[in-house]
Design brief:
Shape: globular
Number of helices: 5
Largest sheet: none
Distance between the termini: 25 Å
Number of domains: 1
Low-confidence stretches: 149-178
Strand content: under 5%
Radius of gyration: 16 Å
Mean pLDDT: 78
Amino acid sequence: MTNKKLNIHIPNIGIHYWTLMILATTIGEIVGNLISRNLGLGYSTGSILLLSTYAFSIIAIALSGKENPSVYWLLIVLGNIAGTNCADFITIEPLKLGTMWGSVLVMGILTLILIVWKFVSPKSTVETGLNSKTFFLYWFAILVSKHPLPPRRADFSRPPPGVGGGRNFNLKILTIFK
């Protein structure tokens, strides 16, 4: 794929955006747990299935090159579903890294994505439109930053009082690289 400009931007960030983001996170956690636990697929098979679906969807959108708010939110939901399974895969089983080392791993991956973005295409931003390289980096960063920690261990991911954030505190690092 060439480094052509894609006509894809993020939606305006406001009350509508954050309401949909909260719904997507809730749906992601419920469906992620349904797939891995209730259907008995386990975290490994569930993660492979969900990451494949997420990757296929991103590639299909990149090939179409069209902007569609419904598709954007579908990817956000799929990212949350896959993120829930991957977080359990990392922290609970089979990797069993626990919350602290799982968080260190996720933050390291997110930091690496953002560093690569700065070197690969420093002028491509979510506001000006993404080129084909940063399009994939953006959605990979979204997947990683949506990595929810298991609820019983979520206190580790909370920022200090007054800082704000919550379970998707990692997403705040994205604003540093604007």
